[in-house]
Design a protein that fits this description.
6-stranded mixed β-sheet, Rossmann fold, elongated, nucleotide-binding
Length: 641
């Protein structure tokens, strides 16, 4: 939704053309003016779409996890704000005593007591404000931290194909910047309570001084709220536009830096800078829209305030002339009035800033609405002494937003003691099957089981401990060799790390590094060659020593000798565990006990599984084998169950 598209209907229903009343020309003109202030003056629609609008009540309901248990601090903050407002009321009342008891009679004798009281009140107010400041910061920082933690934990549960569709830069903006909007919502509630308390206290004091005059003053209040209500919707719209555009700009910068070498190789620096500048200009346009609105709002409110003050001053002079008020009384009345205007304005401003904060919070909630595919089971099954039998039964999978399924009706069985290769053309669905085998995604049809138990009935931790997946593009972290390898099993000893490195064929290269296991690999492992990076990821997978090893293209980037060494290792590992390797590499296919070929998302029946070749008839049976010539040590037919 662009910033000039009307948002969903607000709280008020306006009479339409057929309605009895239509807004006056002046109001319509003001509304059109305000809308033109908000209208974005930037090209393009930006990379990031607007977050869906969430009703305010739902915004608060959804923040309950962060707020629960924080009630006492919130109450303390409200009490502190009310107490400070009470002290201010007494301070103003003391001013009347100064005028009427000291200045008018020119008598200094009460001054000492009044001054002492002033100092005591100032000290108390200072102390309470100090506590208020610290407690506010504590509350807002902890709520922000909790929300960030929740967002990150949620993102960790989002299937990576869904997460990949989000722009990383924008997600980071939501996680860091937009989360802070919640503070405004929270402290807005506290400030609102304080403003309300001051309104009641000052209003009460004014009623005591002169109730008729006070009633006139109160007429100003609805005018403030009317003005802030007029502005709030527009502030929200402009805040949404600002945040959306900032997310787009960060996303462009992040993507451009992540693909820096690509940009340099193809000489696309100018285009990237232009793209960044375009998004940057959109941020500027949105910020200027906000600035125009921010600058207009106080002018309107100041005019309303001035009109109210002038009316009260006129009537106050009349009350003074009639003897209903003393001079001190009138001065104090006017002081209360100017003080009363403050909470009125604060409440109005609050409507406006809460509307803007809701815009930021909606963007955070949108992240929390991303589907999580990988739920923990409510009643997990415990698996002891895992054998490592894996069955894929009638599995299908369609990527989020994709038109066609990547897999349909796939059956496969893996048993310890056998090494299975997944073959097939690029894009046929091998990596997708790898994802299902490691429960990185769930199949909506059929199931994947480990020792007969559906992976969805096992704790994710159990799955991760027993099935290790090496992804095709396994990231290398900007950390030491040791930290990179032990990422899969924190606490592994150096000997175990060396053993895993040896299995991956990288031990000699690491030994040659001056810092050995402590050598830092740089961002995305840039201090390594492509093949070495692949081997770091392989060592990480092998360190887990799990019952099932699922490797996607593990020989990519390895020279022939290294590939042979790795295959020998895999063969050895396959003696007592299930190993499946997705690969195009003929060496891998030759080494496998069985080759399962995938074509356009389905397992191709192998010639060997023809009726004559005693196929596995069950849907859970191993579905296919490659043409005989590719076979190595093992057979091409049915797999033991
Ligand atoms: N994240 C994704 N979102 C949408 N579609 C995807 C995604 N990943 C893969 N696909 C699609 O799913 C199909 C299978 O892809 P997959 O990566 O499983 O193939 P593959 O056999 O592993 O290919 P390769 O040998 O090139 O790695 C392809 O058509 C691909 O375009």
């Amino acid at each position: 939704m662009s910033a000039d598209t009307p948002e969903r209907p607000g709280r008020r229903v306006r009479p339409g053309r057929s309605g009895a009343r239509r807004p006056g020309t002046a109001v319509r003109a003001l509304r059109a003016r305000l809308d033109s202030l908000v209208r974005p003056r930037a090209e393009g629609t930006g990379l990031i779409a607007d977050a869906p609008t969430v009703p305010f009540r739902d915004v608060l309901r959804r923040l309950r996890p962060e707020l629960s248990g924080r009630g006492p601090v919130l109450t303390l903050l409200v009490l502190l704000t009310v107490a400070v407002a009470g002290i201010e009321t007494v301070e103003i009342w003391l001013f009347q005593r100064v005028v009427d008891d000291v200045l008018v009679p020119v008598d200094v004798s009460p001054l000492l007591a009044i001054a002492g009281l002033y100092v005591a009140l100032a000290l108390l107010s200072g102390l309470l404000s100090w506590v208020d400041e610290v407690a506010s910061a504590w509350l807002s920082e902890h709520v922000s931290l909790d929300l960030r933690r929740r967002v990150l934990a949620h993102l960790h549960k989002v299937p990576s194909d869904v997460a990949d569709q989000q722009r990383a830069g924008d997600v980071l903006t939501r996680l860091t910047r937009d989360v802070r909007s919640v503070e405004t919502l929270l402290l807005g509630a506290v400030d609102g309570a304080g403003a309300l308390a001051r309104l009641l206290l000052y209003g009460g004091a004014m009623m005591l001084l002169d109730w008729q005059l006070a009633l006139v003053a109160f007429v100003v209040a609805p005018l403030f709220w009317w003005a802030s209500d007029r502005f709030a919707r527009r502030f929200k719209k402009v805040a949404k536009e600002k945040r959306r555009r900032t997310g787009s700009m960060t996303a462009v910068a992040e993507e451009s830096l992540a693909a820096l070498s690509l940009v340099q190789v193809h000489g696309r620096e100018r285009e990237e800078q232009e793209k960044f500048e375009r998004e940057g200009r959109a941020v500027v346009a949105a910020e200027l829209g906000a600035a125009r609105l921010r600058a207009t709002y106080p002018i309107v409110v100041d005019l309303l305030e001035l009109a109210g003050l002038l009316a009260v001053i006129g009537l106050g002079i009349w009350a003074l002339a009639e003897g209903r008020l003393t001079l001190g009384g009138l001065l104090v009345f006017l002081t209360y009035l100017s003080q009363l205007v403050r909470p009125m304005r604060e409440l109005g401003d609050l409507v406006v800033s809460v509307a803007s904060a809701v815009a930021g919070t909606e963007r955070v909630l949108e992240v929390l609405d991303l589907p999580t595919g990988l739920a923990e089971p409510a009643d997990p099954v415990a698996l002891d002494d895992v054998e490592g039998r894996v069955r894929v039964n009638d599995a299908s999978f369609t990527y989020h937003g994709a038109a066609a399924p990547a897999l349909t009706g796939v059956n496969l069985t893996l048993v310890p003691g056998r090494m299975v290769a997944l073959a097939g053309a690029s894009g046929s669905g091998k990596s997708t099957l790898v994802r299902l085998l490691g429960r990185l995604s769930d199949t909506p049809t059929g199931s994947v089981t480990l020792d007969g138990v559906d992976l969805r009935d096992l704790r994710l931790q159990t799955v991760r401990e027993n099935i290790t997946v090496l992804l095709q593009e396994a990231p290398v972290l900007d950390a030491s060799v040791r930290d990179n390898v032990t990422f899969s099993r924190p606490g592994a000893t150096d000997d175990e790390v060396w053993e895993a490195l040896a299995m991956a064929g990288l031990d000699d290269a690491v030994r040659a590094l001056p810092a050995g296991l402590d050598a830092r690999l740089g961002q995305r492992g840039r201090s390594l060659s492509g093949g070495q990076r692949q081997r770091i990821a392989l060592a990480r997978a092998l360190l887990v020593d799990s019952r099932v090893l699922v490797l996607d293209e593990p020989t990519t980037g390895l020279d022939a000798a290294a590939a042979q060494r790795l295959l020998a290792t895999l063969r050895r590992l396959a003696d007592d565990r299930s190993v499946v390797v997705a690969s195009h590499d003929p060496a891998v296919l030759a080494e496998a006990d069985e080759v399962v070929t995938i074509e356009r998302g389905t397992v191709v029946p192998s010639p060997a599984s023809s009726p004559d070749a005693s196929p596995d008839p069950s849907p859970a049976g191993s579905a296919a084998a490659a043409p005989g010539g590719a076979q190595g040590a093992g057979s091409t037919t049915g797999v033991a169950r």
